[in-house]
Amino acid sequence: MSWSQSQLRRLAARAFIATTVTAAAACLSFAFFHWHTQDLVRFLCYVAIALLASPLKVSLPGGTLSVNFLFTLLGVLELSLPETLVLGLAGTLAQFYWRPARRLRPVQLVFNLSQVTVSGTAAYAVYHLVSAHVLRTPGPLALLAAALVHFFCNTAATSTAIGLTENTPISKVWSDFYLWSFPYYMVGAAIAGLVSYLNAQIGYQSSLLILPPIYLLYRSYRLYLGKLETEKKHAEQVSNLHLRTIEALALAIGAKDQTTGEHLQRVRVYAMALAKELGLTADETEALRAASVLHDIGKLAVPEHIISKPGKLTPEEFEKMKIHPIVGAEILEQVEFPYPVVPIVRAHHEKWDGSGYPFGLKAEDIPIGARILTAVDCLDALASDRQYRKALPLNEAMAKVASEAGTSFDPKVVEILARRYVELEKMAQEHPVKAAPKLSIDIKVARGLAPDAGFAESVVPAGGTKNSSDSLRQIRGQLGMLAQLAAQQSGALDLKDICQLFAGRLRRLVQYDAIVMFEIRDGMLVPAFVSGTNTAGFAGLKVTTGEGLAGWVAQNRKPIVNGDPAVEQGYTSLVGETLHSALAVPIAALGVLAVYALEKNAFSPSDTAIVQTAADELATAMGALPSKPAAGAAAGK
Asked: Taking a C-beta distance cutoff of 8 angstroms, is the pair 361, 354 a contact?
């Protein structure tokens, strides 16, 4: 059985905690088996003072630091081992339950009590060993040795537990959060030595005099930490500024690209979990966090009709799309992030085998953040609805990503993702998505009669292609005769009749299984003529301009070839054979002509040219019809 890095780390953390608890139990058993006290009143007095001083504590990222260590050192000098341990445990319990900053989980409480016990026992043993066998007499050097042992045992245990639990180097945790407290242990040792000296001179009642020094030590803690907190607050403000920049840029992307907040949230959660398991540095992790939101910002330079196209891109359109990683990197270079976001954004479409873009980077030449982001983004994209297809079930999406391990994706990243994707999806669902502010992209601005340069003449793009121009000329002539016939018989023919004529001729030229002529009415596309498969279902469709295949074509005046009919509004309610290909073209500004086929990828570029030609001639014929309700109400049955 192979163990993952995260499983080994959790196992090591549990083993360390269990070892610490076992050692503490052994220390307590030994101490209480040899329980004795020389002066019960003095012992109780020390316990009372320790309890009163327990609220004097400061919060740290890894826990709290209090003056309890001072009483442990005092116990080392003045009390027996069991009394010393009781003194330390009493102060620790009071610290955690008397107005605590946060509630500890049971395992945290047990671990803290255990480390206090072990460090107190070690300090007691070192003091008496040094006094008896090294110095041959008690003294400041023995107390200094005890204070050093207490400091290292206490802080090293906490640093180890945090480092193993959070996958952070133990030495970094210790140096960042606990090394600075070393001088205060030395000051505490000096205070304990002074109290012990006063006890020898004037009696243990002098212990009451240690309360003012303890309070001064606490205030010293607070002043020093106040400076640290001010610096930390400034760093957080800078970090928050970058975060707001990220959110603002993400909002700019969202205004153009229809990527949802849920998608970005899931990508971020997945990416952060993989970054932690793969052991990325703090800077690499923060860079990946930003890039998971901003990787598509370069799409701001891509025409909107390409981004929102609910179908396959043409080679020319794909060339335009491929610039977005480079443009995105150039935009983010201006932000000057303090961590390497730009390389991730620039490389997030590179592939493991070198077949990606824009530079064809291969394997580990691709930044690790980009390798993580590419796999995670692909998984969630496959499992999310898109304009050109429906979402795959999560397990099928994961299987598709796994099939490309070693070609498109880093095998190590895919292995972790395949093992944890169900767990990570649950984590993503547990994080609420902050609703993005609605941008005013749909309002109409009344002021401003014309731009300074005046208005350009509106031009509707002509249909067809330059290929097979002779064939198209013949087709245009044949359909043109139908348009002339419709014009001559404008009093006898309605829209349905004209569409029937065109559909019959078009069927000889393009192989399709269903045809729909959508007419624009009040911002909606309504079928004015339907023929072929699923006739009854298509006749009841109403498509909003801008939505689905036909709506996109109507809004952008551009054709879609081999689009997925399933994304058409209301298509899922159709009853009958399943259509897999759609070819839709604009009929000038009047509507959309769409043909559908049962086979996938059924239509060719020449089919597109023919259907566009038919649409152009149909627009001419429709223009010759008298304006009357019958012309717009003739939906085929």
From this structure: yes
